[in-house]
Amino acid sequence: MLQTHGVKPTYQRLAILGVVAETRLHPTIRSLHAVLVKQIPTLSKTTLYSTLELFAAKGLVRSLTIDPSEVRYDGVPELHHHFYCAVCRRVLDVDITCATGRIGELHGHRVDEVHGYFKGVCRDCRSKETRSARRSSPPKLKDKLRRSPHV
Amino acid sequence: MLQTHGVKPTYQRLAILGVVAETRLHPTIRSLHAVLVKQIPTLSKTTLYSTLELFAAKGLVRSLTIDPSEVRYDGVPELHHHFYCAVCRRVLDVDITCATGRIGELHGHRVDEVHGYFKGVCRDCRSKETRSARRSSPPKLKDKLRRSPHV
DNA sequence: GTATATGCAAAGAATTTGCACTATG
DNA sequence: CATAGTGCAAATTCTTTGCATATAC
N or C: which terminus of chain A has fewer CB atoms within 10 Å of its end residue's CB? Predict the structure, then answer.
């Protein structure tokens, strides 16, 4: 997989690609580090940053800027779009194909990537919303869950 | 305009909304500050951050995360999508209406915002690309134009 | 006069860089 | 061995916060 894309398969890179490709949780650098350190105790975030940038350049992963505070990574090769829940901060896959054919050209610009970002409140969080929750004042950022769920 | 959205019209807010609403350059906090300080020398970035967060909450502007390094703001009320040029880092409007009707509901999730982000190289930068430019090594981030164009 | 808005300075957090060390072929 | 990958620590930059001052109704 790595060789076919011109990337030297090191121990770290294989482990990183494994996690990104098998999960659909759209991990962040931080969550990847938290998970992978168990397996590779010396793994640094520097390596994660450079490796994921390399993977993105080689088309092995896509980087998502749907979460305003952290970059998310997607290792599923099929082009698809995403939903971001402002409450639980999960990123979910959306399977509509609309606009995905626009890769190539648009208004004379060369289009390399198309990202469809839908933002709102996911089904799970909607059902948990209570009147008391709606009534409370908006949380400060540091009280919000800045940390996304594992991986 | 401000009163109708439940926002007290202060001097700063009027000036900020004026710039964001009249330009189509999708300004950042930094570029807004650079422009507005000429008119309001004491204007702080703190005020810009809190004001634009307020405007976004009231639906007066939309915040775009298409530029991975800075939040962009869009004051044009009509729903539209965006193109990001990886070379000159401009954000351009795109007039396709695809997926804009998805606001409301999707897979049971409540959708408040839809963002269509197209990324690539804009028409102007394509025509400027020379063989020597293509041959040069990728620039370091600090050598890239981190600063977006004015406003 | 009380509530809200503004602004400064400091803190917080994600990302990038410099450089030394290590592993790969 | 030479090249390329890794990792630590420091630096950079965007964003948020705490609190003091100023403004508005």
Answer: N
Q: How far is the CA of B28 from the C1' of D13 (A)?
A: 14
Nucleotide closest in space to B147 (CA vs C1')? D13
Question: Global pTM?
Answer: 0.88
Chain B interface test: which of A106, A112, A127, A129 (most B C-beta within 10 Å): A106
**pLDDT at residue A100, rounded to an integer:** 77
For residue B44, give Cα distances in angstroms to B27, B30, B64.
16, 10, 21
User: Distance from B5 to chain A by nearest Cα, in Å?
Assistant: 19
Q: With a cut of 90, say whether residue B135 has pLDDT above it.
A: no
| Strand C nucleotides within 7 Å of a protein CB | 4-9, 12-18, 23-25
What integer best gives the mean pLDDT of chain B?
87
What SS3 state is found at B86? coil
| Three-state DSSP string of chain A | CCHHHCCCCCHHHHHHHHHHHHCCCCCCHHHHHHHHCCCCCCCCHHHHHHHHHHHHHCCCCEEECCCCCCCEEECCCCCCEEEEECCCCCEEEECCCCCHHHCEEECCEEEEEEEEEEEEECHHHHHHCCHHHHHCCCCCCCCCCCCCCCC
The answer to whether residue A79 neighbours chain B at the CB level (below 8 Å) is: no
Q: Which residues of chain A have pLDDT under 70?
A: 130-151
pLDDT digits (tens, 9 = 90+) for A106-138: 999 999 999 999 999 999 998 877 544 444 444
Out of B106, B110, B121, the one facing A110 most closely (by C-beta) is: B121
